[in-house]
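Fold it.
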Amino acid sequence: MSIIHTDRWLEEDYHQPLNISKKLLKYFEDVTERELYDYLIMHGMYRPVKNGNETVEKLIRLDCWNVVLKEWKRLKKMWNGPDIPIFIFPSDELNPQIKRDFKGKSGVAFKDKLFLFLPEDIEHNELKALLTHEYNHICVLANNKKKDDHYTLIESVLIEGLAESAVKYSLGEQYTANWTKYYSDKELKNFLERYILPNKDLIKKEREHMKILYGKGFYPKMVGYCVGYYLIQRLLEEKEWLYPALMKHSLTDVRILLEI
């Protein structure tokens, strides 16, 4: 199915996002357009602003939909990934965390669909980096048959580490997220032992799981993501592997290799 022409939806209904959300309902079960839109906002989807139509036109001029299509086909072939619908929308320009941690872009991956949220001035390689991270999630989830809310904290940590390591391998370290540089290896080793390992079996539907993953409350910001990237990079260095070697392994295999 691949790229959905959300550019046309945005041209018609940018200022009526619930109309757009209504178009998305056929891809979900047991959710209203309001609930769905609120959920997508949590992950970085735009909220209408006065000159928002200009953002839409800029994204169209940047040819974002075709860039994503071409890069998705490459990744799908490389990882033998699933065919899924991909939805592109502007990102929430008022969200400070997206600007600080994710260079103004965001996304959310489900097991059978993918959303990308883009700033108006996104570079093509930054767009590819976002797609690489999010589509990697889908490929990893497809290879690990498990209900979404049954993933443990350590599995979520590794999933994020695998995704951003894929970005580094495919596009170079300069296109990895800002959060990959927040802490030293010494700090990350300490965070692993202090925050991650004691809570490694918390499942996704438990509130503390997401607090640790994103570094909310009293936890260091983005601590789960950062530790995950540290672990995967450490494993690649120790085994002297290139990234594609890891994609042949399940999450269970990766845990065994890391002895966690």
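The mean pLDDT is 94.
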